[in-house]
Amino acid sequence: MPLAATALVAAGGLVASLAAGCSDGAGAAPKITTTARAGIAPTPPAKGAYFGAWVPPAVRGAATRTPSSTASGDASGTASGTPSDTSPGTSPGKDADKPGMAPVAAFERDMGRQLDIVQSYRGWKSDFPSGLDTSVLNSNRYLLLTWAGADTKEIAEGKYDALIRARAKAIKATGKPVFLRWSRDMDRTSVKDRVHSPADFIAAWKRLRQIFTAEKVDNVAWVWCPTARGFGASNAGAFYPGDDQVDWICADAPPGADYEYRDMSESLKLFMQWARGRHKPIMIAEFGVPKSYGQRRAEWLRAATKALEDPQVKAVVYFDSDEQAEDARDKRRAYSVTGDTHAVSALRELATTPYFNPRNLPVTSGG
Description:
Elements (H helix, E strand, L loop, with lengths): L7 E3 L4 E4 L13 E3 L15 E5 L47 H10 L5 E6 L8 H7 L4 E6 L4 H5 L4 H14 L3 E5 L9 H4 L2 H17 L5 E5 L23 E5 L11 H12 L6 E6 L9 H12 L4 E7 L21 H12 L15
Parallel strand pairs: 4-5, 4-11, 5-6, 6-7, 7-8, 8-9, 9-10, 10-11
Antiparallel strand pairs: 1-2, 2-3
Keywords: Glycosidase, Hydrolase, Signal
Protein name: GH26 domain-containing protein
GO molecular function: mannan endo-1,4-beta-mannosidase activity
């Protein structure tokens, strides 16, 4: 299905909307709307959800991923405003020689398909696009640019206007659709010193959007992303800037290191209840199954597949990394599936399920 057909344009092309149906076990989702411009900024697929991942860059001297599939083929992109479908008969892997793309291509071979979304993390003062960013933008994958935050009061007061304007111009200059996830996990107590309060965060968010609007940056979809856990004891919803300020609502949803075992449906439950009141597509931008789950990792991933087949969920991004682990013995914060045959197979099943392949990208057989 051509990606251009995955969004319906209304109100002079400024608002994309689509009616979400129901899937087995999922409640009715609201009609989905976004301020992003179809064909210019990322918009949700009409059916199903994009599949993406964060794959850390290769570390010199470290062991490299050994793909479970040896298939290779074309993954080149086009110059149009949205990623195009891969031609029949092609398969992921060719972009491995592009800057930053070797680990991504290896992960794609494990998954048996090309990613829809590749995530990239950038610091508040870091320049972008990076080499990886440019490689993704020049392919037929979406870039999910996760941009760190700064002191919200200083942003709202205008201290960083020049920096924000420079980043806005840089994104505009790419001419490609970009997911922008700014200051994720703003509800965590560990960042309270710079986030201050929900009101301060919202003021800073609006300042960014005002500058991007002034610079006429139309190729960005704004992704608001607290933690799923924040909808429990704390009030993550208080940080929501408003439907007119957000294109995608999002949550980071690792099971939590304080649980021996926890299904993804439990991790997402309170967030999904809150999200039903928003007419927005949902992105799960960081999810992963801990290595501490051992032989139950595959079981967890298969249950997660069912939980994520929700009509409002339009993008899922696996966190294929161990970087959050405190040390080599910390398996509760290690999520990479590399070397775990059963986990790779189960994640591959998720990735190649039609619901998570809305562009009908070619699927390769297991190796």
